[in-house]
Amino acid sequence: MELKQAEQHILSDVFPAAAKFPGLDDHNWKKQVFKAGDTLFKPGQPCNRFVLLGQGAIRVQLQNDQGRSLLLYRIEPGQLCIHSLINLINDENFSYITSAETDGWLCWTEKEQFQQWMDSSSEFQHWIFNNIGSRFKQVIERFANHAFVPVENRLAGLLIEKMGNDQVVKIKQSELAIELGTAREIVSRHLSRWQKQGLLVTNRGEIIISDIDAMLAMAL
User: Fold this and answer.
1) Rounded CA gap, 15 and 118, in Å?
2) Each residue of 89-120: pLDDT tens digit?
3) Rounded CA gap, 216 and 21, in Å?
4) Distance CA 38, CA 205 (A)
5) How much is the CA Rg of the chain, to the nearest whole Å?
6) How far is residue 127's CA from residue 209's CA, in Å, rounded to a whole number?
7) Whole-prediction pTM
8) If both were cysteines, with which of 14, 18, 69, 138 could 78 make a disulfide (CB 3.0 to 4.6 Å apart)?
C-alpha cells in the first residue's frame, strides 16, 4: 500500500526535518496500517525497513522467558525508534517486541534506501544520530528511575500522569505492571492498600483517584 497525498502532508507536519533532506519528503513511501494490540516486530526478525510513524502510538518492550515485560519506551508521531535505527546501522535483527498501543499507520522504505540517505546526506545522518542520542538518554533515565525510585512512588506518579480530568485512569493493572517493570501482584497489592486507605477506587479496567493530594505527595 502506498502513501496517499494527504498522508504525505501529515508526514511532513509530524517530521518537519524531513523537508530539509533531498528526496525524503517526496519519497515513494510504503504504508502499513495497524490495530491496537498488533505485534509489529518480534525478536529475531530481520530489521530491513526504515520506519516513520504517521499516526498512533507504538510500544517497545523487553520480555523475559517467564513472560514478564518491561516497557523500554513509547514511540509517537514525530519520534524515531532507536532500536530499529541501531539495527539498521549495525545490520542486526530485532531484539525487542514492538507492538501497537493504538490504531494507526506507519510508512516505510527499504534498508538500502536508508543507507543511501546516510551516505549521501550529512544532515540526514546528523538527524538520525541526534534522535538516537536523545532517545537513549530517555531510556537511561527510565532505568535510573527503576533502580532508585521505589515501585510505590513510581506507581503513584504513573496514575497521576495518566489520570483524566474526571480523576479516572483508564488502564488495566497488567498494563501498569509493564509500564513499571514489575509484577502485576505487586501493583495489585499497592492498589488494594490505597483503596483501603480511601485514596482510590479500583474497578475493572479503570482506577478512580479519590485523594489527589495524597497521590501527589507519594509521587514526589
Assistant:
1) 17
2) 999 999 999 999 999 999 999 999 999 999 98
3) 44
4) 20
5) 20
6) 41
7) 0.73
8) 14
